[in-house]
């Protein structure tokens, strides 16, 4: 069996139509991984080729030569999103973008779509013009440490993340009991 580089197996089941099948609605979004500082380069190349591309950016303060000014930086350095009905030809065209490393997938040669609600949430943050800062990824069930406030340096398990709030579960293993307290997720870092 031939070794695949990423994507060949994805299209093996679709060769008779040349398209990815979608039951309904718009085509899915995919995450693209780029070389360092190549997000805008990849974005511009794909936009010219007719792809729907989304590169979310944050406005941040920067100081150069002692002068402070606002600049736009990618919200997710090294990543951007593309939405397209990826036929085999379009996929090859996508991979031809200078600065692109790969399209993210599950490691079995299949592309993994990004849920529309995640893209919509990111768009809402960008369009709101509210201050936003990068934050380490915290998944429900992950062990975290609180960095500030009355619970500083307390460690527990983060559960039930919702609208910036989460439940920090503290457990006593000896007698198998737990207590949960609501915390601001911006105060939590991976333990």
Automatic annotation (TrEMBL):
It comes from the Bacteria. GO terms for biological process: DNA-templated transcription elongation; transcription antitermination. The lineage of its organism: Bacteria, Pseudomonadati, Nitrospirota, Nitrospiria, Nitrospirales. Pfam families: NusG. SUPFAM superfamilies: N-utilization substance G protein NusG, N-terminal domain (SSF82679), Translation proteins SH3-like domain (SSF50104). Residues 26-126 form the NusG-like N-terminal domain. This is Putative Transcription antitermination protein nusG. Transmembrane segments: none annotated. Keywords: Transcription, Transcription antitermination, Transcription regulation.
